[in-house]
Write a structure and sequence with these properties.
118 residues; mainly alpha; 3 helices
């Protein structure tokens, strides 16, 4: 399920990029002629591109929220947990400052024949 949503998100992002690149920054949108080239509905094309941009942006937000929702309550989170959670649970909890009876870690002692300096 989450793979399908990620594929949809990628498709919507590519389509949004194309819609934005097609648009003319002055609002003309696909205008090929001079200022008097409104014969073939250039203004209408700009409106379609602008509405398409807003629709794609809305779809990207919805799919992103769906991915987050499915990811939090998804298949593997309830039963086994993530690898990060299991690693955190395995880690040793430190003792409180001043109240612990833990011994400091042993330092490595040099071997008898080792004359190298650190």
């Amino acid at each position: 399920m989450i793979t399908l949503l990620i594929i949809l998100l990628i498709i919507f992002c590519v389509a949004l990029g194309l819609f934005v690149l097609i648009q003319n920054p002055k609002g003309g949108g696909l205008a090929t002629g001079g200022s008097g080239s409104n014969m073939f509905g250039v203004q209408r094309t700009g409106d379609v591109l602008e509405k398409g941009t807003w629709v794609l942006l809305t779809l990207i937000v919805i799919v992103s929220l769906a991915i987050t929702t499915v990811g939090k309550s998804g298949s593997g989170a309830g039963s086994a947990g993530s690898k990060i959670d299991s690693q955190i649970e395995k880690s040793v909890t430190p003792s409180p400052i001043g109240g612990g009876t833990t011994t400091p870690p042993a330092t490595a002692t040099p071997k008898a024949g080792d004359t190298s300096k650190k």
